[in-house]
Design brief:
There is one protein chain. By secondary structure, the protein is an alpha/beta fold. It has a domain of about 80 residues: E3 ubiquitin-protein ligase SopA (Pectate Lyase C-like, 3 Solenoid), CATH 2.160.20. Helices cover about 10% and strands about 30% of the residues. The protein contains two helices and twelve strands, in the order H-E-E-E-E-E-E-E-E-E-E-E-E-H. The strands form five sheets. It has a three-stranded parallel β-sheet, with no helix packed on it. The longest helix has 9 residues. The radius of gyration is 19 Å and the shape is globular.
Length: about 120
């Protein structure tokens, strides 16, 4: 066996992540509350009814994604990007933005990024 073949990772067998119920498998969501998400990269994705509540999301990039009916209550986002994203019908209760680039951030038709620039002079 050559060295290159030894270093190649083995392909994992397909497994169901769901719970068995009478022969049928019920799928479980990949994103669940109280989790750590790190170094993820999502582009042009639709995430509906996702619960990010009380989770830590770090160094993750969402590009042109749609978040619909999602819960971000009490979450922490560190070093994340949300360029071109739309969030609708979501909860941001208890969420703080610190040291974030909010240029172009629009909340219910109000350009918050421009408003903050005018208020702070930065």
């Amino acid at each position: 066996m050559n060295a290159a073949r030894k270093l190649r990772p083995k392909r994992a067998a397909a497994r169901s992540r769901g719970a068995k119920t009478g022969g049928a498998t019920q799928p479980q969501p990949l994103i669940q509350p109280n989790m750590l998400v790190a170094n993820a990269d999502m582009a042009s994705s639709t995430l509906t009814r996702i619960r990010h509540d009380h989770s830590v999301i770090s160094e993750t990039r969402y590009l042109n994604c749609l978040f619909s009916e999602s819960n971000f209550e009490g979450s922490t986002f560190q070093g994340c990007g949300f360029d071109g994203c739309i969030v609708e019908n979501a909860s941001f209760r208890g969420v703080e933005l610190r040291n974030c680039d909010v240029e172009g951030l629009v909340v219910d038709g109000i350009n918050v990024g421009e408003l903050l620039k005018q208020l702070t002079g930065r």
